[in-house]
Each structure stands twice: as structure tokens, then as C-alpha cells.
Amino acid sequence: MKQNIAILCSGGDVSGMNPALKRFVEYSLQNNLVPYFVNEGYEGLIDNNIKKADYCHVANIINRGGTKIGSARSKRFMHKEYRAIAKHNLDKLHITMLVVMGGDGSFKGLHKFYQEHKIRFCGIPSTIDNDISGTEYCLGVDTALNMIKFTIDSIRDTAYSFKRTFIIETMGNKCGYLALVSHITSGSELCLIPEIEYNLNDYEQKFRHEIQNGRRYFIVIAAEGIKQDSAEIAQWFEEKIGIESRVNVLGHLQRGGNPTVKDRLMAYKFITYAIDGLLQGKDESIICYTEEGFDYKTIDTVVNTPYQLDNELIKFISS
Predict the structure, then answer these.
(1) Cα angle vertex 101, ends 99, 104, to 5°?
(2) Which residues of the chain have pLDDT under 50?
(3) Quick check: 238 and 211 in contact, CB under 8 A?
(4) Residue 319: its pLDDT value, please?
């Protein structure tokens, strides 16, 4: 008898989810499984918005950002009675396995769901914040970094032309990964992230000296979780350094866009390992990726271990 398997996207969407959905359908069918899509994340589980999927549902989506099946942040799923409804809906369709693409909050909800109802699952880290413990890479990060790179490279042209400072604010919640990697790979003059204490006044003499010696512009990469807002930083540059300043908050454009080759490939691999793990009896795992390759870690380990930014990356900004 064929087994039924479902997939959902939870929390913020990322580029790479659609390639993952395509691989999910194709690999499920290859393994004699019946694939289902849960639309609108955990909200869809509660509302029974669950549909059988086939090849026709994933045609022409591999190049699209976002997620064909929608995503959501579900306050209802935080409550036990709604999680019971979600399990009942899965049982009615005889769905015994669940793949969840999401971030930290999504996995915490999934952890509760498993503790109460023992639904077999595999989680795929999918957040541009890249702040999931145990994995060095989350789906969608490469596309987000490339969107930021394109923006910085474009803004630099205007910064040079007008002799301005541009403060470019990236997403990341309380994690400075996007800002830090963008700083290293763009050659920006200053990077401010939540993980490192800073005082702008420490840079005043250096930046003034650079202006006197011909510098025309500054690019500042600021993570959204730092102690000052970007407008305050721009004001400091104008008042203390004496250079006209502008703020660019990149916002949600970082979450969209055509998925890069890396994110398409990682989506393919994440889904393959997720389904293989479920078929091999791994009932409560998160697929994690490190330099050693892919590994299955228990959800208890992932959600109960605080994330820490790579010390090697921090050394680059501290040196």
C-alpha cells in the first residue's frame, strides 16, 4: 500500500522553496509515495487546505521565487487545540509523513506537534537569516546574498558620483550573517551587526582622515537588529564626518527573486535527504548541512541549542 506524504512552507518565504516543491513531487512519486501540498503553512493544516500533488502542479516553477503553495505565520498553531485539529486533518487523508520548510519559529511549533501527536517529519532549514543551530546553510540564503550584492554594487555607482554615504540595512532579525557576508564580499567600509558591540565615535578620526585623503564615499552595511536605527547612523555621518548620507532599507526584496543555481541545487539535495530519511525510519529530524556534508539532527537538539554566528566570520570583521 502506498504511503502518503505532505509538505508545507512556514514563516518567511525564501527563494528555493519552489525548486524544493518540484523535487518533492518528483522524488515522492519515484519512491511510490503519494505527495500532498499543504497550502498556507500551518494555517492550511488547521483549515484542511491540503491537496494531492502531481507533476502538473510543479511545472514551470523551478525558476520562480517565493512558494507556489503559500506560507504563513500561524498564531493558532501555538495552541494545543488547533494542533489537534491539524493532526485530525492529516489522519483523514492518511498522511503519515510531513516535510516542513521553515525557520526557528516553525521548528519550535513542529517540535510541539511531534511531542503531542508523534507525526513523522523532517524539517528543512529555510530562512534567509541563516540562524538555525546545527546547520551552516539554510535554503534561500544564497539568493538573498546575491540580491544584496546586486543592490550594493548598484548603489556604489551613485555613492561615488555624489560623494555620499549609503547605509544599507539588511534583514536577519537578531543574526548578522547576511550583513557580515555582504560586507566581506562587497568591500564596504563598515559593518554593524548585533553580535559585536560598537561605538561609531571610534571610527570618526579614521573616516575624517580618509575624506581628507580623497575618499569620495562610504558604504555601510547595517543589520536590522543593531542598537541604532539606520537614520541615526546616517545623521552621525553627516554631523561627525561631514558627508551627505542616505539610507536604503532593503526589506523584503531579499526574500524574493530568481533562485540561484546554488539554492536550486541545495533544494534538490535537502528534499532528497528528507524523504530518504523518512523512508529509513528517521521520524523527528532536521536536515543540517556543514562542511562535512548533510546530517540528520534531532529537532530537540536544533530548537534547544542557541545559534551562534561562525567565529571565523566574526574574526574577519574584528581584524
Answers:
(1) 120
(2) none
(3) no
(4) 54
Place of cell 500561524: 74
Buried b (16+ CB within 10 A) or exposed e, 13-22: bbbbbbbbbb
Look up residue 300 and give its three cell numbers. 530537540
CB contact at 8 A, 131 and 103: yes
* Under 8 Å between Cβ of 296 and 307: no
Q: Check residue 204 and report its DSSP letter.
A: H
The pLDDT assigned to 131 comes to 95
Asked about 129 being catalytic, the answer comes back as yes
| Secondary structure (DSSP) of 86-155 | HHHHHHHTTEEEEEEEE-HHHHHHHHHHHHHH--EEEEEEB-TT---TT-S--BTHHHHHHHHHHHHHHH
130 close to 170: Cβ distance less than 8 angstroms: no
Looking at this protein, which amino acid is placed at residue 265? L
Handedness of CA 226, 229, 233, 234 (dihedral sign): positive
pLDDT at 147: 96
Catalytic residue among 13, 47, 104, 129: 129
Q: Tell me the C-alpha distance between 247 and 234, whole Å.
A: 7
Q: Going by C-beta distance under 8 Å and a sequence separation of 6 or more, which residues neighbour residue 222? A: 167, 168, 169, 170, 179, 191, 192, 230, 233
Length of the chain, in residues: 319
Confirm if 156 and 114 have CB atoms less than 8 A apart.
Answer: no
Q: How many CB atoms lie within 10 A of CB 287?
A: 25
Rounded distance, CA 132 to CA 104, Å?
Answer: 6
Q: How far is CA 28 from CA 45, 55, 204, 305, in A?
A: 20, 11, 58, 31
pLDDT at 318: 63
Provide φ and ψ at 25, rounded to 5°. -65, -50
Strand order in the sheet with 33-38: 50-52, 33-38, 3-9, 95-102, 120-125, 284-290, 293-298
- Grid cell at residue 277: 530519511
